Amino acid sequence: MIPLEEDVLEFIAWVIGGDEAVRVIRVLGEKEMSDEEIARKANLKEDVARRALYNLYQGLLVRMRRERDEETGRYKFFWSLNLDQVEAIVRDWKRKILKKLEAMLEHEQNNQFFFCGTPGCRRYTFDEAYEHMFRCPRCGRPLEFYDNSKEIKALKAKIKQIKAELEA
Ligand SMILES: [Zn+2]
């Protein structure tokens, strides 16, 4: 089984179908399960679980197979994670995050930052600090040059990690 990036997957499930979808995703595996089994394991009412499953199915995160019960003539539904799709979604997501991080790194590298040192206040670029005459508009303390080498280092490490994961 491919290593799943659980938090990415759960986040996307949440976007698609809210908390119920996250609970469904958590109990679903590669193996097929019926609605009833999923509802029981996720501790959801069956109609709620079914709605979440349907949303996830629409969002392509889960696969569905139906089987006719010979005795009752009714259809039973079986669900499983759509692993190919899940992997594609996670990769796509990582590419987006990578782009964002690269833009952030560029912003860090191309600017000088000024900071008042007060927790909760934000950093300002030179232009912004200049506009405020080097006084923090939030707390009034002087804005001083801020060494952002820590932020740059952290961003570079994260970028390197995601690139390695994408190449794997
Ligand atoms: Zn401040």
Describe the structure.
By secondary structure, the protein is an alpha+beta fold. The chain has two domains: about 5-85, Winged helix-like DNA-binding domain superfamily/Winged helix DNA-binding domain (Arc Repressor Mutant, subunit A); about 110-165, no CATH class. Helices cover about 55% and strands about 15% of the residues. The chain has six helices and six strands; from the N terminus they run αβααββαββαβα. It has a three-stranded antiparallel β-sheet with strand order 1-3-2. It has a three-stranded antiparallel β-sheet with strand order 5-4-6. β2 (about 60-70) and β3 form a beta hairpin. α1 crosses α2, α1 packs antiparallel against α3 and α2 (about 35-40) packs across α3. Bound molecules: zinc ion (ZN). The site of zinc ion (ZN) has 7 residues, from loops.
Radius of gyration: 24 Å
* End-to-end distance: 15 Å
In CATH, the architecture of the largest domain is Orthogonal Bundle
- Order the strands across the largest sheet as they lie in space: 1-3-2
**What is the overall pLDDT average?**
91
Into which percent range does the helicity of residues fall? 55-70%
Number of helices: 6
- Which ligands, by name, code or SMILES, are bound? zinc ion
Structural class: alpha+beta
Instruction: Give the number of domains.
Output: 2
The helix/strand series, from N terminus to C terminus, equals HEHHEEHEEHEH
CATH fold name of the largest domain, please?
Arc Repressor Mutant, subunit A
Number of strands: 6
